[in-house]
Specification:
The complex is a heterodimer. By secondary structure, chain A is an alpha+beta fold. Chain A has 19 helices and 14 strands. The longest helix of chain B is centred in the last third of the chain and has 24 residues. Classes of the chains: A alpha+beta, B alpha+beta.
Chain lengths: ~475, ~375
């Protein structure tokens, strides 16, 4: 280590990177094994450092939609990543990691905290991923990263066997026990772990620990959850609206699917409802994991048409159980979390457009089969599946949010979006406002993407079905060269 | 079906390893040689063979046949090996007849795959194949197709990539004919000319051309195909040599190596799909009692051990190195990692057996 990373670190304004004389961990000589329990005790202070004083925001600016998807990598981010790799190749391991953490801070914002010990140069980091925290230490010799998944009072044979079996699926990390804690961790000589490999390791630890804990809790009810829930509480208004519409959309879907015999159509409607909830309601914690589990029924048989009826049945039954939850139970999962690692990879718009072209046959088929009432749910399914699977350019995200806003006016009004775009009482589009919004988006992105312009003149405002279809049709024609 | 009589067939089956992959071979006692496919030996003049009864041996390739996709290998002198019998000349294969394909599909060693003859004679490229519904896979190549009496009626040669359970075995009449042809040039390496079908020995080869019809012969068949490992494979092989192991005996394919160290087998793998290298070893079997304390021990060790991980699959305790990115994989650090890993495998194997009453693993050959 050149021992002078501070010069270029300090250039970064508003960074959460903290330099301190008395780093809270005794990282001198990297007594890694000595610091674990202390480290965990500091987690709450980490949270308070990040969130202290933050209160739910008024208005709509603080409302989060969808899960965290990978954004398009900017030139600046690319340069940072490359610089980290170059420094590592030159043997400047700690310098490389500092640059890499700057990169992560660009991605994860306040969810990434790095502290540097002035004396030793050792780095201590903490990252938030959903309800979990990944923490660790990086010295000149070694990298240590871990996330506490849950705790137990007595070791149980079924739980321990489950963890040892799960290790067969892990690539870059492992389940381990530390005292009475179930930990997902890895420890590695720094010279064997470039920032690129570190990213794989952190990402596995972060995503698995965030996604698996609820499953462990469901199968092993005796374990004690270690969640940092309610990290950012939502406003009461947002909670009430989301609870109401979660029930409403489930109930609408149950009614729609009841008389449909065609199983693939039924699948699209069920998935459409789940994906709409995941995007617009954005539940966390237990509810998020229950929805993920339900989606698992679909993915288990996604290529086996014969088993579609069974998976549809399973999905509906489990969704009915969610619909049967009390408001209080639902509200427990309505909060916001910070994440660093995206769950959905970025997809170039050209690929999205190609996939949309194929999927737009679904609403066309609905019309042909005289089921025009299914056109809007089908279009919502198409939007939902793209937003769930991939990260998209910001311009595309904004347009799709507009799509949701037009078709779900009361929900958005409930959230505080006062600029209503559809009058549900008289079933009338507020065309002028919609066009104004599109023009705003066109103006915002036309300088970024050459030829970017959403052609609103082709939108058909004669019905919700026509609007939904023509909107997606024009959307796929967008010129976004990313 | 008298499959029990086929239990002895396993003795006659060998696994064939080349730098490019692996396949199956079988010994025909009457002819004193091992039969396989030419595409299994991949142009090698020497290959490694192993069986349930003996460890890896290097053997010479005696014959390569690009026309019928056949190859013959010598039988190692120092091992006991079973033998199969070729079906009689007038044996009539019938549609629906139960059959058994023996081999190492997908690296599952010595697997018997049952099925039936779906079509007794399927002409493809002018050659008769027996079409079966046995779910054969890569690794079955070169293995025998057996009748219920254990007679060899074909050599499993290829599958239809797009088809479900569509296997094709070379009809035994070609094998019989080739064995008879080869008798005439025995003790000398020979290759069948795919143009005039004559057998060309090394001494008769005319500057790379067939002395009978003048066609250019495949150079690899005579000179042996050159093996050039990829960048990461090269580093892994350097480390293996540096550790003192015989590379030829360790290499199991383009991305696979198995080190036999004492009673342990350490499988090293390069995964170019995810750009990582790892090592894995089955240490022992879990005990029949006091299992909880074994699990707890393994998971607590997982917390401390750098770059290594314990897992349990079926009844086996497995120790894996965590994956190391191939771009971070260097000869010095890789050497240190693998050496430490192998030492730890032995250490933990002893601890688990002595202190935790685990049982030695009966690992697959």
């Amino acid at each position: 280590m050149t021992k002078k990373p501070a010069r270029w670190i300090s250039k970064k304004q508003n960074s959460l990177l903290i330099r301190t004389e008395n780093i809270f961990l005794s990282a001198k000589n990297l007594g890694i094994t000595d610091i674990r329990s202390e480290k965990r005790n500091e987690i709450m202070s980490f949270l308070s450092k990040i969130f202290n004083g933050k209160t739910p925001q008024n208005g709509t600016s603080g409302i989060k939609f969808g899960r965290f998807s990978e954004p398009a990598e900017t030139e600046e981010l690319y340069d940072m990543r490359t610089q980290a790799d170059d420094l590592f190749d030159k043997g400047k391991f700690l310098d490389a990691y500092v640059v890499y953490f700057n990169y992560l801070q660009e991605l994860g914002g306040p969810a990434v905290l790095l502290e540097i010990d002035d004396e030793t140069g050792n780095l201590t980091f903490k990252l938030l991923q959903g309800s979990k925290i990944v923490s660790g230490i990086i010295s000149e010799k070694e990298v240590w990263a871990e996330s506490v998944v849950a705790k137990f009072s007595e070791p149980d044979i079924t739980l321990l066997r489950f963890l040892l079996g799960k290790n067969n699926d892990l690539v870059y990390s492992k389940f381990a026990l530390d005292g009475n804690s179930i930990v997902l961790n890895q420890r590695c000589p720094i010279k064997d772990l470039s920032p690129a490999a570190f990213a794989d390791m952190l990402s596995e630890i972060a995503i698995i620990s965030d996604g698996l804990d609820e499953m462990i809790e469901a199968d092993f009810p005796f374990i004690i959850p270690v969640d940092y829930e309610n990290i950012i509480p939502l406003s009461q208004k947002e909670v009430l609206t989301k609870t109401e519409y979660l029930r409403q959309w489930l109930s609408d879907m149950f009614a729609l699917t009841e008389n449909i015999e065609n199983e693939p159509t039924k699948t699209s409607l069920i998935l459409g409802c789940i994906l709409k909830i995941l995007y617009l309601i954005s539940p966390e914690g237990l509810l998020l994991n229950r929805f993920r589990h339900i989606l698992g029924h679909y993915y288990e048989v996604s290529d086996q048409e014969d088993n579609r009826a069974e998976s549809n049945y399973k999905m509906i039954e489990e969704l009915k159980k969610i619909a049967g939850l009390s408001d209080e139970e639902i509200e427990k999962s309505l909060f916001k979390t910070y994440t660093v690692f995206p769950e959905a990879e970025y997809q170039r718009f050209a690929e999205t457009a190609e996939s949309l072209t194929q999927l737009l046959q679904l609403p066309v088929d609905c019309v042909k089969k005289r089921m025009k009432h299914l056109v809007v749910p089908m279009c919502e399914y198409i939007v939902g599946i793209h937003l769930y699977k991939h990260g998209m350019p910001e311009a595309a995200n904004e347009l799709l949010l507009l799509f949701w806003r037009v078709l779900n006016p009361d929900f958005f009004f409930g959230l505080g979006f006062e600029n209503v775009l559809y009058n549900e009482t008289v079933s009338q589009f507020l065309k002028g406002r919609i066009i104004q919004e599109i023009e705003r988006i066109n103006a915002k992105y036309s300088n970024i993407y050459q030829g970017f312009s959403f052609d609103f003149t082709e939108l058909d405002f004669s019905s919700r079905e026509d609007f939904a279809y023509t909107f997606l049709f024009e959307f796929k024609n967008l010129q976004i060269t990313d | 079906m008298a499959y029990n009589t086929l239990l002895t067939a396993g003795d006659a089956i060998v696994k064939i390893l080349t730098p490019w992959g692996n396949g199956t071979g079988f010994l025909l006692g009457d002819y004193e040689l091992i039969v396989t496919n030419r595409h299994v030996i991949q142009g090698c003049r020497q290959v490694i063979i192993m069986s349930e009864n003996f460890k890896k041996r290097t053997v010479n390739v005696l014959y390569a046949d690009p026309l019928y996709d056949l190859a013959f290998l010598e039988i190692p002198e120092d091992v006991a090996i079973g033998s199969l019998q070729l079906a009689f000349e007038d044996y009539q294969i019938t549609q629906g007849e139960p059959i058994l394909a023996v081999g190492h599909p997908l690296n599952l060693n010595y697997t018997n795959t049952k099925g039936i003859v779906s079509k007794a004679s399927r002409l493809m490229g002018g050659i008769n194949y027996i079409q079966t519904d046995a779910a054969i896979n890569p690794g079955n190549s070169g293995g025998p197709l057996l009748t219920s009496e254990g007679l060899v009626i074909g050599v499993n040669t290829f599958i239809m990539a797009a088809g479900q359970n569509l296997g094709f075995a070379l009809h035994f009449s070609y094998l019989r004919q080739t064995l008879e042809d080869y008798k005439k040039v025995k003790n000398e390496y020979a290759v069948r000319c795919s143009s005039c079908t004559n057998l060309v020995t090394e001494s008769a080869l005319k500057n790379g051309y067939c002395p009978f019809c003048g066609v250019k012969m495949d150079e690899d068949d005579f000179k042996g195909k050159l093996y050039l490992p990829g960048h990461t494979s090269q580093k892994i092989e350097e480390i293996i040599k540096k550790m003192g192991y015989n590379l030829n005996m360790v290499r199991e394919g383009k991305y696979d190596w198995t080190i036999e160290d004492g009673n342990l087998k350490i499988a090293i793998t390069h995964r170019p799909d995810i750009n990582y290298v790892s090592a894995e070893c089955i240490l022992c079997k879990i005990p029949t009692e006091k299992i909880l304390r074994v699990y707890e021990f393994l998971l607590r060790q997982n917390y401390k051990l750098p770059r290594m991980m314990f897992s349990v699959e079926k009844s086996y305790v497995i120790m894996t190195t965590s994956y190391i990115k191939d771009s971070d994989f260097h000869i010095d650090t890789g050497y240190e990692l693998f050496s430490k890993y192998i030492n730890n495998c032995h250490r933990y194997c002893d601890i688990l057996i002595e202190r935790y009453y685990c049982q030695p693993a009966e690992t697959e050959e």
